[in-house]
Amino acid sequence: MSPSHGDQPERALPYPDDQRAAVYRVIAERRDVRQGFLPDPVPDDVLARLLAAAHQAPSVGFSQPWDFIVITDRAQRERVAALARRNRDQYAAGLPAARARAFGALKVESILDTPVNLAVTCDPTRGGRHTLGRHSQPETAGFSSVLAISNLWLAARAEGLGVGWVSFFGPRDLAAELGLPAHLEVVAYLCLGYVREFGSEPELAATGWARRRPVSWAVHAGEFGRRGLPGSGPVRLLDEVVAAIGPLDDEAMAAARERQDRMTKPRGSLGVLEDVSVRLAGLAGQCPPPLPEPVAVAVFAGDHGVHAQGVSPWPQEVTAQMVANFLAGGAVVNAFAAQAGAEVVVVDAGVAADLEPASGLLPRKVARGTADFTRGPAMTREQAVTALTAGIEVARDLVAAGNRCLVTGDMGIANTTSSAALICAFTGSSPVVVTGPGAGADAAGQARKVEAVRQGLALHRPDPADPVGVLAALGGFEHAALAGFILAGAALRVPVILDGVIAGAAALAAAAIAPDAVAACLAGHRSTEPGHAATLGYLKLRPLIDLDLRLGEGTGALLALPLVQSAARALRDVATFDSAGVSDKKA
Ligand SMILES: Cc1cc2nc3c(=O)[nH]c(=O)nc-3n(C[C@H](O)[C@H](O)[C@H](O)COP(=O)(O)O)c2cc1C
Hints:
Layout: H1 17-29, H2 44-55, E1 66-71, H3 74-93, H4 97-104, E2 116-122, H5 140-158, E3 161-166, H6 171-177, E4 185-194, H7 203-206, H8 237-244, H9 250-262, H10 272-284, E5 295-302, H11 317-328, H12 332-340, E6 342-350, E7 361-363, H13 381-400, E8 405-411, H14 415-427, H15 431-434, H16 443-460, H17 467-474, H18 477-491, E9 496-498, H19 501-513, E10 521-523, H20 530-539, H21 555-573, H22 577-580
Parallel strand pairs: 5-6, 5-8, 6-7, 8-9, 9-10
Antiparallel strand pairs: 1-2, 2-4, 3-4
The structure holds flavin mononucleotide.
Flavin mononucleotide (FMN) binds next to strand 3.
């Protein structure tokens, strides 16, 4: 075949159409297989073909660092399976509740269900010190072994053989169990066997554990962040997300209302929770809506130049110290998240200190704190867009990782001052009405906050019709990132439970960017900070709880999480008068 593309010259293709299609098909239909293996043995000649395919993989400096250990002995496989089980139990013990439940139903290894196991190793020393390419990137040795695995995986698919990759081992434990020479690393442990059928999508996607990210999220034109597939031009993530935000689905909402009225309870007796369930249905576009779990709370942290105006009794270092506390699991947000079964993710949106890499920390620092908004803009417009984009990406990644509910969290010494300024800018409220004591400012401190907000408003004359400009003038990096987080939740039609005044200020920005974004938001609670009530009133959001909280971090929203989940659960589980044979009230 010789296709021509526009004014491109006709090009003879090296393989006929059907063969080319088969290559793409095998790539698309390759699966990691964990269940449904047949007991049939794998003939030696088939296995030899697979290993020969693996052995044709590219390798750094042509070093061919792989070896393949073919394991069929039952006793040996049982010992390896025991290692995997121990690791599995440890992993399960560290999961938040909803994840742990889902994980319990997942199969993660088929060591004993398959007739052949393969350990694939890497010798990072093979070929000596001048191995071309590895001299500068030692990790390319391991990459090369992975490419061999990929070849084998694809060839196995073509042969009708399922492959499952098991990494539930400490690599040293597995190497010791296999009696490997000390210079070899285990790269993979694979389980191979014939299967009746291959799933049409990855098992982890079919079970809702995680979703496939669209390819357009992964392709950048020339520089990271300039997203766009070849031929479609660069798309600004913010524009793309805003374009995807729409109103709630009327049909699903009507179905939810109608179902609430038929449920075995007096009509309207679940009060506000009925509205919550209707909104969840409208957001999901289906009735009943999916349960809002698993859940992730993203704590966005940033520092504020306005701290210099004496607006907080706390030193600025506390932001970074609390980030460390969140990561160590020692803060109230961790306790409430553990109770509610949510995962805590901490995002460095703009902490003034350098933070060490840590599990659970997403390094998305736009700058080391904002500038003092009483003297000039807190950030540039470009920085505001960068922070918005960071928030969008965090939300997208958490949803792709399988979360079905997002919770906002925040940390930033002085961020109630910035929040008050944003609330004034977006709602037209007066600084003295919406500026509160925050994390414990005394009367004099509160007066300084009001003055700082007044100065900021006078200096920047923010225009609520230019929300990015308002964020740049008066916001914090965590506010801008939270606004992006809310927008992305709305675009992906995942509920976003808002915490207190900082999330509220960010939601005002999100609403100014895309008014329909508010439909995805549920107000977790009402903070005692006065600006919060003004914000909720402006956004027409009713807080689910009102417990005089003023901590932030996501704590109030996490307390509301079981209410939101119960609202969805009721709509899903409660019988109707007709289904349960219960007599309805006389009309
Ligand atoms: C490096 C690597 C390690 C993996 N480890 C495991 C594992 O320990 N247990 C498991 O169930 N799946 C494991 N997998 C399989 C992935 O979960 C699977 O590839 C992914 O869900 C995508 O599904 P698909 O391969 O069917 O497209 C691993 C995959 C890779 C590439």
